[in-house]
Amino acid sequence: MSQAGLMLGDTSGGVVELPRDWRDDVFLHGFSKGLANLKSDQELLSYLGVELRGLFQYVLSVDLFVLQPLSGELMPVGSRGGAATLKTLTGLARAGAGGSPGRLVDGPRLFRGETTPSRASTMSVPVVVDRSAMALIVVQRTVTAPDFTRSDLQSLAAVGDRVASVLPRININALTAAAGWLQSDMASAREIQRTLLPTLGSSFGSVRVVSEYSPAYAVGGDFYDLLDLQDGRLLGMIGDVSGKGVAAALMMSRVSSELRQLGMQKVSPADMLTRVNASLQERTRDDRFVTVVCVSLDAKARRCVVANAGHVVPMIRRANGSVIRLSYPSGPPLGMVPRHIYSQQEFALQPRDIIVMVTDGVFETIDGQREPCSTMGTCRLTDLIAHAPHDIGEIRRHILDAVGTAVGGPPDDVALLGMELTE
After folding, report:
1. From CA 151, how far away is CA 128, in angstroms rounded?
2. Rounded to 5°, angle at Cα 313 from 309 and 318
3. Residue 311 gets which letter from DSSP?
4. Helices and strands per DSSP (H, E), number in the chain
5. Local mean pLDDT, 10-residue blocks, the chain (423 residues)
């Protein structure tokens, strides 16, 4: 073996194009037939391992790397030692002939073995589809074996050409399998998220409660919660994380958990929002924000205390059918303004009052506008609540029916929480 690793290239750093004059018709014919039955990159790696050990002597390992389309990284397929092999070869390629940093996927490369430090003879060829490298095949000999030759590299290049003819199909199979796994995984995530939301009973003493949660996708960023603080006192919370999908769901889980912990400590609604806002500012590095409204209900005293962080204003349906949109100053969404101090306001309640709290997915779907109507005015949602029977279950049904039949606009997460004084 020589004392230096060599790369098949000229002194200017360019890669010498190998002649395609090697033809082992018997091997290539059988090899191509076997490729036709492969369905995954794992099967392709196993097949290459068997076939190339038959084609070349003293083979220690056969590795397959797939180029990731977005990052441009070469990722090993089912090989624990693949990452170390790739790191070594990348270093050799960067220090290759003529000082060229040449990339491994630029063309076939031959690296001769060394005795000090001990390194086996290795060769690699890219798998090129439509003039773009999609994968890399690397074959390594045992340390004591003779070096691979230029003829060996030509043989491996011919193998790479055959692999290129089936790789797009195998990639499609892999994407299909991944999509199936993702669909199953997201279904599990949806069920887990639902278990994190409270399963509410129909009543808490003299207060009837209803809820609804429906994400636009498998998981979402809307949430609600209800804490029974005993002695006729309840704490209702509802919120909406900006965005949709997994990222919003993860943020939702964190914020709802922090709010619940503070609520169980009987922290006031305003202080709850202030503390969570400070926590988000300290630990969140993106521009995601959360709208939340907290309603502390005292059924015996017939009063409620409300604190709002940029969320849809709660509504009260009176027994006479009138609907009041609670008018009070709302603070900014959580995570938007550092060190903001939130305020709260107390409202008197009447017998049989119904408090309705929704996320903007409900409001915007029904009203078809981005900005909620004024607290003193009317809108479709308040009209719908006003014309429904005076029953929290019926109001919930009317709202969900309206959301379900609305047409236009992208889907959004939907959440609802309602509380009705029964006396």
Report:
1. 20
2. 145
3. P
4. 10, 16
5. 36 42 66 87 90 92 81 73 73 53 72 76 90 89 91 92 87 51 58 66 86 77 90 93 78 89 94 94 75 95 95 93 83 91 94 93 72 53 90 92 67 86 87
